[in-house]
Amino acid sequence: MTRQKPISIKIPDQILILIDNFVRLEQYESRSHFLRIAIEELLKQELGTWEKLVNQISEK
Q1: Each residue of 22-59: pLDDT tens digit?
Q2: Other C-beta atoms lying within 10 Å of the C-beta of residue 15
Q3: Residue 15's closest CA among 33, 28, 34?
Q4: Residue 2: exposed, middle, or buried by beta-carbon count in 10 A (0-12, 13-18, 19+)?
Q5: HSE-up of residue 40 (Cα within 13 Å, Cβ side)
Q6: Torsion of CA 48, 52, 57, 60, to 10 degrees
């Protein structure tokens, strides 16, 4: 397993309040869990785009 390194980001208070509400409603285990899921979903959406870009660059 690869070593995980902690990262630090600033999130606006309004977003944290929304995340905390999801956690309170037990839709997510914690803020970290919410953020991991959000990042995974973003990467899934963007992965095809990145793959196409890399292929285009490789063809030149």
Answers
A1: 999 999 999 999 998 998 888 788 777 767 777 777 87
A2: 9
A3: 34
A4: exposed
A5: 6
A6: 170
Tokens (6 digits) for 17: 């309040």
Q: Cα(48)–Cα(41) distance, rounded to whole angstroms?
A: 12
Gap between the Cα atoms of 23 and 36, Å rounded: 13
For 20, other C-beta atoms within 10 Å of its C-beta total 14
Per DSSP, 9 falls in state -
User: Has this prediction a pTM greater than 0.70?
Assistant: no
- The amino acid sitting at 47 is L
